[in-house]
Fold this sequence. Notes:
Elements: H1 10-22, H2 27-39, H3 41-62, H4 73-89
Helix pairs in contact: 1-3, 2-3
The chain binds zinc ion.
Amino acid sequence: MRIPSPLFNCQQATLLIERRADEVLPSTTRFQLWAHLRLCPYCRRYEEQSALIDRQARAAAQARVLSDVQLPAPARARIQRALEASSGNSAL
Length: 92
Ligand SMILES: [Zn+2]
């Protein structure tokens, strides 16, 4: 019987924390990650911050944008110039 090592390195652990948000990890991997998080305060902090960013990003994505919000005129002019310069460079 092969005993899984709980000692991921932190790079592997943080990658798995992110993958865990999108997919179901195998049970052995989940156990190894759990064990790493029990032992590693840095990855526990990463996990907390990742969850906070996820909550904030979801809230921002669902927030309503007021219809009368507009960019300031200088910003619109700057973007317009950038678009014109860009389309000039890639004209067909
Ligand atoms: Zn770690």
